[in-house]
Each structure stands twice: as C-alpha cells, then as structure tokens.
Fold:
Amino acid sequence: MRLHNRVALITGGGGGIGKAIALKCAAEGAKVMVVDVTQTPREGGPATLDVLAEMGADAAFEPGDVAVWADIDRAVTATVARWGRLDVIVNNAATRAGGPLLETSEADWDRVMAVNAKGVFFGCKRAVQQMLAQTPPADGDPEVRGRIVNISSQHGMIRAPEDIAYGVGKAAVVYMTRQIAGDYGGQGIVCNAVAPGKILTGKPPRPNEDELLAYSHARTPWPRLGRPQDVAGAVCFLASDEASYINGENLMVDGGWMAS
Structure:
C-alpha cells in the first residue's frame, strides 16, 4: 500500500499502459482519477473504471483531451473537488503518426506534438499549480507537496525508426522532466519520468508490426518484450515516498534496450 490515501490522476488511463498504471495505483491504495478521450480500451476488454469498481477502489473518470488546457484544468479541478488534493499526476497520454522526415506531414507533426509535448506541458503546469497550493500529506514525506511522473520513451534519447514526430515529442518529455525537477524541487515538487522500451499492450497492430517487433526483439537483451505491468510498477515506485530523493530522472524500463 505504497500510495495509501494518495490521490493520483492518470492521463490516457482508458487503456494500454495507462490502464495498467491506474489499476496498480489503486492496488497500492490510491484514489484514482482516470482521464482520457474515451473509456473504451483500444485493445478491447472492460473499461478501466469498471475494473477499478470491481476492485473496490475509490475512482472516477473525467473525459478530456490533454492537448486542450480547459480539459486538463477541469480534470485537476474535479480531482481536487472530489478528494481535496492532488498528490500524483502521471502524464501518460500519447499518440503517434509514423513516418520519417520526408513522409511526415505538417498535420501529423502538429497532432503528435499537441499530445506528446504540449499535453505533458499542460499536465505538468496544472499539477504544479495545484501542488504548490497544498501542504504535504500528513502521513507522507514532510518535504513533498506532490509528485509528477511523465511517460517518456527510449526513443526520446535515440532515434525512433521511421517516426520522427514521436521521437521528438518524447525527447521533449525527457527535457521537461529535468527542467521541472530543477525549477520546483526546492518547493517540494518531485518530477521524474519512466521510459518504456517496447511494451506489448494488445492494441491493433500497425501495418509494419512484424518488422517493428523483430527490430524490438533484436534490440532487447531480455528474453521477452515488456508488459504494461512492468511500466506500472516503476510508476508506482516513483510516485511513492520510497523515491523521495530521486528527482529529474528518466528511469528506463526497457529490458536492457539502452544498455545493448
């Protein structure tokens, strides 16, 4: 119960990695606000909120597009209205267009940047606004007002094959994480990131999925590719008091991809 009585907001929590994070946070004792454009998981199966209800978790869903400030503002405001504070935000929502430089349209670029870069910027900004206005939880680290966990990628540090927009967006997440940690750490804001490698979420395959999977297996020393639960465990660690002296880090959860 590492997150007992903590309040966590997860963007992109309707499916995939975000769903796993929401369920893990709840299992660790958190009250969970799920934010997404839809409650229908792309990979199929029950909605996140339905599973949380079966677990007996204190949870809610707020529809919202992370690329729209008003939506993020409303989601954080609703979270605080319901539970009185915001202890953790997980900026997980992301999208991709696919394509190298010459095959990436302006519209594709703008769409990916709106979600992957601006969406994280909005989430961090609104969370910091709230966290600076609250005192540390009575049963937690007395120096921490709140924690931000951003979901980046190994492709924020090395090239994303044939996906320049995605890679640049994730590189922005890595940079923002360090910047925010440096700017607000002295005021009790902890900001870290988790960088997943190839994670198998069960979402519909892309046209070149077999080629991408072969590439991922070749790059990953571990005998299997990642699962959403691998990422969720790392997120909950960084969201907990166990990680109080970790700030501005980009934790690899990649089966050794970046080590090979």
About this structure: The beta strands are 7-11, 31-36, 59-63, 88-91, 146-151, 189-196, 250-253. Residues 67 and 114 are 5 Å apart (CA to CA). The mean pLDDT is 96. The chain has one domain: 7-259.
